Amino acid sequence: MWLTRTNPNLRLPANFSFKDIHALFADDPTRLNHPPHFTNRCIFHRSRSASASLRALSPPPEPAPASQPEPPISLPGSERLIVVYSTSLRVVRRTFDDCRDVMSILRSYRVSIDERDLSADARLVEELQGVLGGKTKLTLPQVFIGGRYIGGAAEIKQLHEAGELKKCVEAVSLGFSLNIF
């Protein structure tokens, strides 16, 4: 009538395996032919050694062909100019702010700037796409200094903060070729 207490520290396994169930139903457990047991380590070792053998027998990978560096993007006929493709439309606020910021940075150097407003002339869009050749996504502003493509607003701001933009602008305003990049 008394309840027997069980040991609380005694834990039963959470999962059970039936891999040796055939031993329970065998007539003579001593004569039972057990299949050889392989451990995971042995199987993984075989797999690893097989893949290593295949790698050793395979021919070495062909070296990648040395690609010629692409020529820099340039704007013909503007070797002594600073050309900025921008927009004056305030439809997309971020684009307008970027164009205004780039123009402000370039005007701070007190040099003449050829500003080409894409919202005023649709032919300028085709001209810019022809120059860039579809290599970059057409975002505004796009800046060319001394006929060479410099980049957009992020690149101009980065060059301005590093002091490199001043060297580029001064070289072009003095009539030197742009060999900084």
Order of helices and strands: HHEHEHEEHH
The CATH homologous superfamily of the domain at 82-173: Glutaredoxin
CATH architectural name of the domain at 82-173: 3-Layer(aba) Sandwich
Reported for the largest beta sheet, the result is:
4 strands, mixed
Q: Measure the end-to-end span.
A: 95 Å
CATH topology of the domain at 82-173: Glutaredoxin
**SS class:** alpha+beta
Helix content: 25-40%
Q: What amount of the residues lies in strands?
A: 5-15%
Q: In what order do the strands lie side by side in the largest sheet?
A: 2-1-3-4
Basic shape = elongated
Number of DSSP helical runs = 6
Mean pLDDT value: 79
Give a description of the structure.
The mean pLDDT is 79. It is built from 6 helices and 4 strands. The chain has a 4-stranded mixed sheet. 38% of the residues lie in helices and 9% in strands. It has helices at residues 21-24, 40-57, 93-107, 122-132, 153-162, 164-173, and strands at residues 82-86, 114-117, 142-145, 148-151. Strand 1, helix 3 (93-107) and strand 2 (114-117) form a beta-alpha-beta unit. By secondary structure, the protein is of the alpha+beta class. It has a domain at 82-173: Glutaredoxin. It comes from Cuscuta campestris. Residues 54-74 are annotated as: Disordered.
